[in-house]
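Subgroup meeting minutes
Present: P.N., E.W., G.H.
Scribe: E.W.

1. P.N. recapped why we're keeping a running log of single-chain structure predictions: easier to compare across weeks, and new members can see raw inputs and outputs side by side.
2. G.H. added today's entry (462 aa).
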Amino acid sequence: MTDFTTLIQPDRGQDATPIHLVNADVFADWAKTLSGGQRAALKAQKFDGGGYQVGIVPDGDTWFAVGGVANPEKLSSLCLARLAEVLPQGTYRLANAEPGPALHGWLTAQYRFERYKKDEKAQGPRVLVTGQVKAIEPAVAEASAVALVADMVNTPAEDMGPAAIEAEAETIAKRHGATFTVTKGDTLEQEYPMVHAVGRAAARSHAPRMIRMEWGNEKHPRIAIVGKGVAFDSGGLDIKTAAGMLLMKKDMGGAAHALALAGLVMGAKLPVRLHVLVPAVENAISGNSFRPGDVLKSRKGLTVEIGNTDAEGRLVLGDALTRASEDAPEFIVDFATLTGAARVALGPEYPALMTRRDETAQELIAAGKAHDDEAWRMPLPEAYREWLNSDIADMNNTHTTGFAGASVAGLFLDRFVAEGIDWAHFDTFAWRPVAKPGRPKGGAAYGLRAAFHMLKARYGKA
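Output recorded in log:
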């Protein structure tokens, strides 16, 4: 993982290149304070204060940088990202502000995934000094959580199978002193039958499992985080096309989000009793694959007719959500790369958010807007619940209308969350198809920071 710990340092008066922040509204007046040669240098670089613009200004024997931001007086979490991407290696200091939330983009802009190939052209490191010493550790923690999601999603399925997901979870559990358990084999089949059914066709090295960790004082409010850990999704016997399989290494993105969020919660020592559940499987094809038309038993006791083996994520989540509900938490949040329908509706940038309670949706959306990690709420319509009816089982795992796919998947999950529990579901893409400042192409966290800051706001003062 990219080491962010050295990229922000306390300001002790060390030598640092100044960075001036302006926008298009104030640039002309600010430029009047410069010499004619300096203004000419910026003009040659076509710098006019626009967002994410970067200029280099000569200043005697040295130089300073200038960056275009939306509002120099109220920095956002990503407004320094372009500067951190393109400035030369060195140490920097904001000349007319403290970075505040913009520390996040300064760090994430310097993320690199180099497990298989080193970027020989990469600049760096760029170090930012700040007087906001107490903000450094939380900023590093959040950027590291985002990087964990990216690293896990970027890693191919051969190296990020169920066993590797387990290893990542165990590392996090040990770091924070959480209890850690894994259920596999015959016990998995008995206790989590849908998880076992989905994953049983995989090679022994990628055998299915339920990964769990618990942490915190039992007297504190109990919450659960659940993540879909489908290490690779062939579609099963309802096999995907070659193009459809190309990015399926990212189908464990929900698990990556869940583990990253758990690390943030434990690292911040939020006063909660935390339960983390990750059903980790590979939806493979072999002679013992589960089939269209099969009826699976679930941990909850509901029977599920299989309308499509490519709707496997909701099956493994069903057993996990059932187990989470058994401890009567006051809040459950799950993350899953669940439906193509959510992407058709919202594109890659916005995770689809579904909640039982309006106030929970409002809290998550507000936290996301405040931290450049906005979700978009989608409904759980009672009118569509009947679309999951089955003639021979309690329910089907798919519907045949082709409409409202994301919401119908959410309604499936809702059946496995006990009544009365506050529950939120993020249907996330976990992948960024085009790079943006501070947000590289590839594995990406959507909804992670929104959920963390919502939990901080709700439970941080408990």
